[in-house]
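Anyone able to model this chain together with adenosine-5'-triphosphate?
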Amino acid sequence: MAVFKLDNVEDLYAIGNVLGSGHFGQVREVRERATGVLWAGKFLKLKKGAGSRLGLERKSVEKEVEILQSLQHQNIMALKDVFESRAELVLIIELIKGGELFDFIAEKENLTETEAIEFMKQILEGVSYMHQKYVAHFDLKPENIMLSDKHAPNPDIKIIDFGMAHRFIQGEEYKSLGGTPQYIAPEIINYEPLSTAADMCLSGLSPFQGETDEETLRNIVAMNYEFEPHYFSQTSNMAKDFIQKLLVKDQSERITAEECLVHPWIKPLNRTQIAKRNRSSINMKNFKKFNARRKWKMSFNMVSACNRFCRLQLLCKARGPEQQELRDCESDQEDTGTKPASLLRRRLSSSS
Ligand code: ATP
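re: yes, here you go
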């Protein structure tokens, strides 16, 4: 078992504002008392006991830490330190100030494909680096692609949240059911052996989006998508070819991150290809609509989860103390039976 720093994190860091929350805790700005340098602190609640269903298994955080420690790349969030107490682990990580890439783009009036490619290239460089180290992220999606500083002339992409990541060992068979419905590969839904290729079968606009999560998952398994003229009329053929090579059901046939980096859409071979790319642009009206819908869905999931938790608390209070014990209605018990698929996403089931 890995041993982390046992000092009280507050003795060494002043804890500041909340930057974001995940399913198992919060991320807050922290200031290192000795140097005044700002970092982010990811506070992760651990399971209270073997029977407790809320909180994370220590082992799963150890895995996230081990993976982050092994990755040092400009486009991947860096880990500085880890502290542990009885109830939680605190990861001190690089502070990423620029927010989500998609929010930054949605604020723009227009974006050429050339500008979009600059961001895409950085994402691919980060992904290609981790894949070379046999690490798959397994939760690449807009929420996990952030910008170092949105006011910088050329902000760096930072890939965050390695909570579902896995390092493959040669010859190992690894399966997992985790992921976010709009963005998971068909082999995950089908519970087949996985590889780093699962990180590649995605597109930011989720062309598989259905009316319900079930419909979305069915569309992915059937690889049911089309380039609707309404959305893709301004998109270059090279960009469509690039997307088509990613949205391939057979993982062994899917383009790798390294191959993506030399695809002519990313790395044009001649002046004509450069000119074509410069003439094409992103349909910002559709992008803004998509981003607003994505944000709405995220808040809806969060509110539903809070409502379920509050209902459970009220139920526990309404029953007397004996009944409460009889029914094992712990205040930290999760109602997984009724959770939407997007909330079942993390660290639930995986096997090697
Ligand atoms: P989830 O349950 O979604 O997997 P999590 O508990 O693993 O979440 P993260 O996704 O890593 O947590 O972080 C939650 C949110 O905190 C992010 O969406 C982001 O807004 C913010 N955040 C995470 N890391 C950083 C960072 N290094 N700097 C600034 N903000 C961050």
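The chain has two domains: 10-93, 99-290.
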